[in-house]
Write a structure and sequence with these properties.
Jelly Rolls, seven-stranded parallel β-sheet, 21 helices, Rossmann fold, 3 domains, alpha/beta
Amino acid sequence: MNRTMGIWLCALAWLLAPRGAQGAEPPAGTSLEEPSPRESAFDLSPPRAGEQLITFSEHARDTPIDDQYASKGIVFGGDAPFITTDTANPTSPVLSGSPRFFGAIEGSFVKTGEAHQPASVNHFSFDAGFFDAAQSVRVSVYDIQGRLIRRTSNAQTGIRTFQFNDIGISKWRIEAFSQEPAGFAIDNVRLRAPYRAIFAGILGASKIGNINDDPDTVVSVWKDQAIADYVKTSVSFCATTTCLPRNEEHLKKIGASRVGGVVALGFFMTSVAGASSVNSPGNSEVPKNFIVNNYQPGDRVYLTGFSAGGGDAQNVLEKLELLSIPVEVSGHIDSVEIGDDASIPANTRLAKGFHQKQSGAIVRGEDQLKADDSDVTTVTNTKITNPAGPDDPKNDKNNHHRNMDNDPRVWNAIRGAILTSLKSSPAQLSDAGQPSEAGCPRCSEVIDARSPEEQVAVLEQALEARASGEELYGLRELLARVVKDSEAYRGLLREHERAAGDPRLQENLTAVILKVDAGDFLADVEEAASSVSDYPLFAAMVQSLARVDAQEARKGVIRLIANNRLDVPPGKVIDAAVSAFSDGAVAHLEAGWMLDWVRDTALSDSQLYAMARIMVNAAEKPDARALLEELAERIQDRRLKLEVAAITGR
């Protein structure tokens, strides 16, 4: 069939085809091993939610095409592709390789707007043809490491839509591999951004040293290619001081080795020397703030905790519910907590609990997780007998508990739940940076309000009216932006104090304070933080301060560690300060200033240890090493001295 005849048949097929029949999503829960739908009659439906559509009508005929579509997340290559017309394609113009209709075409996915930053997607399609012969052209798709994911060819003649629904697609190439009399071109490229998934894992108090060699569930997400290609942000927390610095560095290397998956990585301790080691009230505040800082509507949140970290994970779920932030999957591995850690709030879609009954009573995990609302939350409780792992139960009966995080039955179950969720249809992604009027109808009221009291009243009314999570997110973002001076900031603090009897309002105001840009009134924030007694508020203020790109802001956080006016327990001050610097901002801190300040300031072993934790990211700098050596000399506690020595390599 020639191109002139082809155009009439293609147009007729388009007119007769039912709208929406092509390009449908595969059923939720489809196995990775099942082939994705790859070829159908060509698709002329409008862009779907969250989808980019490239028609090649955006540029003039004969324009060579390479990085002009980087703003949409793709660059083109192959055999010098260019825009041309094609009488056999009713949606002409098209993209052709060189020579016209006979060259190969490649597409590489990139971080939006950055042509040289590789990225991956999970859904894309394009039209190709007009094919005069079947099995004449093949399409190959590759992951970010250049490994072939799958290869297919045109099963029929005509113009066909090739659709791929695979995890972590980074590049594709279409080329003729047998006789194709009239050649081919492509058109109507559709792509969706990769899922924005946030994964947080909380390690426990039991022996953590085995993470260097064994598949701990909490950190395995970073090693698993199938999951990591979805990840927007991934982080690990430690429930107690048993996470030694060498393990922290190992975790960072795991994350850093991921080229396209993990785009931000931190490591936090939810309690440090001087604080209660298990389930202290502030333990869940650090991971909760991390998620709040990174979350945007449409993101998918996954949370896993082991031992004491499992109890902390349940506390995080409750705090996220107050903020209307949904959680897709939470894993609770032999969860241990002082108090009730059995209730799973209604913001969580699936909670999977795992327990064993062979260790001593104090470290037998929770076996009765239950949903607050079983209509929206599914909860499972699984007993693991003889957990597999590196610790021999003959030497210590508690080793059954320690092995739970290593048992493949646990990891495979959590991994399967995460993948099933990730492969389900992506939620519509909002432009969270600019809350729309449709998504946040009350945002205009915040703009019109004349005082912090009136602004917060809008948020209060939205909470009473059970506003959507998207609207509450928009209100929090807007409230943080309108705070531009110390007067407005102190007004917000007064409103936070007034909300003491309303946990939901207070939690939302804490989230607002966390995101305030305090660059213009640093001293006021530091002064206010030094006198608050509410730890969640204090942690939010300190982390907000540390995010400001200014030396004085970072020095203010350091000064807060030793501020004796604080009503907050000293260990909690260290918690907030250490976590505030976990994003690498410390690398730009003046270690020389810190060295002089440490020498001139009376500090406890716990405070000295906190300084060492803060400086670990800058340990390669000569002045930072001098500071670390000074800290190791001054610390008297033998265990803490050894941990600081491990940082310095002494």
